[in-house]
Design brief:
81 residues, alpha/beta, 4 strands, globular
């Protein structure tokens, strides 16, 4: 038996590309997100917290009106924390 069970639908966006982005943001997501808010799981390594990519990424995510919350599990924390 698996050590992970997901009882609800989970969406992945592996095939997302610029050709689909406009339709996704304007036509598909708004009606879907009202009754079922979207949460994004964004894994992060502790060294990335001080890196240059995290701040612009967070600003882009904050501007997405269809994202209700972002969950960011952090791995690799120093042992003294």
């Amino acid at each position: 038996m698996s050590d992970f069970a997901q009882n609800q639908a989970i969406c992945t966006l592996q095939r997302l590309n610029p050709a689909h982005l406009h339709a996704l943001e304007s036509d598909w997501l708004p009606p879907l997100c009202k009754p079922s808010p979207v949460s994004l799981i964004l894994p992060c390594h502790a060294p990335d917290l001080d890196g240059p990519a995290l701040e612009p990424l967070c600003l882009q995510l904050a501007a997405a009106p269809w994202i209700h919350q972002v969950l960011s599990p952090v791995t690799g924390l120093p042992p003294d924390l």
